[in-house]
Inverse folding.
C-alpha cells in the first residue's frame, strides 16, 4: 500500500498525510525523504528542501555555458534523479505515505501501484491558514500562495510533463478547507483500505 | 445537508449517488427531478432527460430567426430556467442528493451550502462499464464516451461559465474505477457527516 499525497501550500496537507500514515501504521516520507536524498546526493538538507519541489528560472547564459560542458549536471536535475531513484525504491519495497516530489507521477510511470491523492483548498482558507501557522515574511499572503503554486506547478511540469493539481492525475482530490482535517484523514484511510 | 454529484457517463456515478442517499436516509433527485421539471415545464420526460444536461449546437439561421422574436424562449433555455428554480427550491428546503444538471454551481451561486462531488474514471474502466451495462449502439465506445463528455461540458460551460470536471469546482473528486463503488459511497457519506 503506497499513498502519494500532493498538496497545495497551506492546506494542512502535511499534517493530514502524517496522520494517515500513523493511522495505517505505515512509514511516512516527507522530512525523512529529504534526509535520505541529502545523504545520497551530498547536497545539504536546506538545498534539498528548497529545490526538491521548486524549480527556479535559469538564465540564458547559464544554459549556453552548461550546454557546452557534457559532464556537467545541473544540481536541480541531479537532485531530481536521486530523489526519483529513492522514491521508486521506497514504493517498490514498503507500505508508505510519500508527500510531494512528483511521487505519484513517478510511481505510476514505473508501473508501481499507488493511491494518488491531491489536497487543495480555496484561497480564503489558505490565507487564514498562513496567518495562523506561518510567520509573516512581509510578502502579501495571496502573492506568497500564488508564487508557491506557480513554482510547484513548474516543477511538476518540467519533470513529468503533467499538470499539477489537475483532477485526471489523481484518484482522490480533497478540499481540506471544506471537509476539515479529520474527515480528510478518514477518507484517505478508507480509500487506501479498498 | 445537500450533496450534489456530477459524474462522467459510465462511472457508476448514478448508483453511487443513489446508495449515498439511501445510507444517509435523505431524498434522491435524478429521475425524480426530471419528472418534476417535466411536470412544471410541460415538456415530456424524454425531452427533459435528453436536454436537461446536454446542449445541442444551433444553426445560425435559428439564431437569426429567434433573435428577432422577443417573446420566443429557446426550449433548452426554458428547461434550464425551470430546472434551476426547482433545484434551488429543493436545496433550500430539504436534505438531498442531486445528480447532475449544474446543481452544485447553481446552489453555490445562490449561497446555499452544499457538498460538491465529482465522480470520474479512466477511459479503460468506462469502456468496460459501457460494455457491461449498456446496449451496443453501433457507435464505437470511446467515441460515445467522448461525445457525452463533450456535450456535458458544453452544457455546464454554456449555463454557468465554469469548466465541468475541473478540481477547483468540487470539494471531493473520486476516481470510481480505482476506488470502487463501495469505497466511493463510504467516502461521500463520511464527507457529508463532517
Amino acid at each position: 500500500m503506497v499513498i502519494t499525497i500532493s498538496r497545495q501550500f497551506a492546506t494542512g496537507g502535511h499534517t493530514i498525510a502524517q496522520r494517515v500514515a500513523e493511522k495505517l501504521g505505515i512509514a511516512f516520507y516527507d522530512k525523512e525523504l529529504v534526509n535520505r536524498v541529502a545523504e545520497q546526493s551530498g547536497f545539504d538538507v536546506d538545498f534539498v528542501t528548497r529545490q526538491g519541489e521548486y524549480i527556479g528560472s535559469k538564465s540564458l547564459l547559464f544554459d549556453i555555458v552548461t550546454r557546452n560542458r557534457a559532464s556537467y549536471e545541473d544540481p536541480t536535475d541531479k537532485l531530481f534523479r536521486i530523489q526519483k531513484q529513492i522514491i521508486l525504491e521506497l514504493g517498490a519495497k514498503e507500505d508508505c505515505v510519500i508527500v510531494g516530489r512528483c511521487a505519484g507521477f513517478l510511481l505510476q510511470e514505473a508501473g508501481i501501484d499507488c493511491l494518488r491523492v491531491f489536497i487543495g483548498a480555496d484561497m480564503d482558507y489558505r490565507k487564514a491558514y498562513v496567518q495562523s501557522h506561518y510567520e509573516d515574511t512581509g510578502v502579501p499572503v495571496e502573492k506568497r500562495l500564488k508564487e508557491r503554486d506557480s513554482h510547484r506547478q513548474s516543477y511538476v511540469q518540467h519533470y513529468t510533463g503533467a499538470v499539477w493539481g489537475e483532477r485526471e492525475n489523481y484518484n482522490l482530490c480533497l478540499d481540506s478547507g471544506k471537509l476539515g482535517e479529520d474527515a480528510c484523514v478518514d477518507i484517505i484511510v478508507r480509500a487506501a483500505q479498498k
Observations:
- The two ends of chain A are 10 Å apart (CA to CA).
- The beta strands of chain A are 2-7, 27-29, 96-99, 115-120, 172-175.
